[in-house]
Specification:
Elements (H helix, E strand, L loop, with lengths): L2 H8 L17 E7 L2 E8 L4 H16 L6 E8 L16 E3 L2 E5 L7 H13 L8 E5 L7 H5 L6 E3 L2 E3 L2 E2 L2 E5 L14 H13 L4 E3 L1 E5 L6 H9 L4 E6 L3 H16 L4 E7 L3 E2 L5 E2 L6 H9 L3 E5 L3 H9 L3 H4 L4 H21 L1
Bound molecules: adenosine-5'-triphosphate and magnesium ion (MG).
């Protein structure tokens, strides 16, 4: 019985809480059969002990149900998720990441990419941080990082390495550097997983104080793939102030909980618009960010107002954090970036 046949059987097993199976997520590292004994090795990057125990049981049951298998030997390797500040195990051949921060929300269009890009730029603008900050765009189908940073492909390569272009002191990687122009990316889940693994393993990131990761909306392939590939310091959740957005972001936050990834905090974006006469308009309502933080038991990190300069900077490839660091947007992003690094690194000390 070949490893592929065993893996075909193991495809019946879904990762707890997700609809995807453990084989397509790359959790089954090895499978072998000899003399009636089936072996399987599972590798979990960030699952808690309960998930590991559950999967071991399921895999054993599944193997023993295959005709001809008399005994099943299942090994599970787990690396606990990095707590904020804990030193990350070396997860990548091409990079050493002291902190890895995912920027996420269940909800689309709330400003995840805007926050990820501006936070990375603001972090790299802090003293001594230029070139020590990375931004990995895991929105494989709709990458925003090329437009928002003004960097496009093709990518430089050296042997098997991809060299991340650097802009505003930030090392960048995006699917947008690899596919041409408007060509749609029509990939299935396992390919998303492989793309993310390549971004981690085959990019010469070097030593980074912080790697920010821009995630697509939803609670799907990219999120679980990332959590399985890299030990995350945690996730930042973005929401707009209205209840509907905060409810969807809550599902995103709970998903990270299932993956044993801590929620580092909640950022409310598009919090209000101050017109030229100085009157504040709460266009998207009020309070969603604080309520979400409360529900998740995570710190509320602050509000980003609706500011034309943020949208303009995003479209022009000149993020507000660096285009006008002393403007209202620049100051907010600088404060968020400095506070986040202080907290993560403080916890490590
Ligand atoms: N605070 C803000 N003020 C003004 N415009 C903003 C603000 N935040 C985001 N935008 C604009 O809103 C649009 C959506 O933002 P962005 O692409 O960052 O959202 P997203 O959550 O990453 O979306 P997706 O779910 O599609 O990945 C962009 O055009 C961006 O420039
Ligand atoms: Mg985005």
């Amino acid at each position: 019985m070949s490893p592929d046949v065993l893996k075909e059987h193991l495809r019946q097993i879904k990762y707890p809480g997700f609809s995807r199976d453990i084989v397509s997520f790359g959790i089954v590292r090895r499978a072998a059969f000899a003399d009636g004994v089936a072996e399987a090795a599972l590798a979990l990057t960030s699952a808690d002990g309960k998930v590991a125990g559950f999967l071991r049981g399921e895999v054993e049951k599944c193997l023993l149900a295959i005709p001809g298998v008399r005994r099943a030997v299942v090994t599970v390797e787990t690396a606990a998720a990095t707590r904020p500040g804990a030193p990350a195990p070396a997860p990548s051949r091409g990079g050493e990441f002291r902190q890895v921060v995912a920027v996420a929300s269940g909800k689309g269009g709330v400003g995840k990419s805007t926050l990820a890009v501006n936070l990375a730029c603001a972090a790299a603008a802090l003293p001594g941080r230029a070139g020590r900050v990375g931004l990995m765009d895991c929105d494989i189908y709709g990458p925003s990082v090329p437009l928002m940073t003004g960097v496009s492909g093709p990518l430089a390569a050296e042997d098997e390495w991809m060299i991340p272009p650097e802009k505003h002191g930030v090392k960048l990687m995006s699917m947008g550097f690899l596919v041409r122009g408007d060509a749609p990316v029509v990939w299935r889940g396992p390919m998303v997983m492989r793309a993310i693994q390549q971004f981690v393993q085959n990019v010469r990131w070097g030593a980074l104080d912080a790697l920010f990761v821009d995630l697509p909306p939803g609670t799907g392939d990219a999120q679980i793939s990332l959590a399985q590939t890299l030990p995350l310091s945690g996730a930042l959740l973005v929401t707009t102030p209205q209840q509907a957005a905060a409810d969807v972001a809550l599902r995103g936050g709970l998903m990270f909980g299932k993956l044993n990834v801590p929620v580092l905090g909640v950022v409310e974006n598009m919090s209000g618009f101050t017109d030229p006469a100085g009157v504040l308009h709460r266009i998207f309502g009020e309070g969603g960010g604080r309520r979400l933080a409360e529900k998740l038991g995570a710190p509320f990190l602050g509000e980003i107002p609706l500011l034309p300069e943020i949208r303009e900077g995003g479209d022009a490839g000149a993020p507000a954090a660096v285009a006008s660091p002393d403007g209202p947007a620049g100051r907010v992003f600088a404060g968020l970036a400095a506070g986040l690094l202080r907290r993560l690194e403080g916890a490590a000390g």
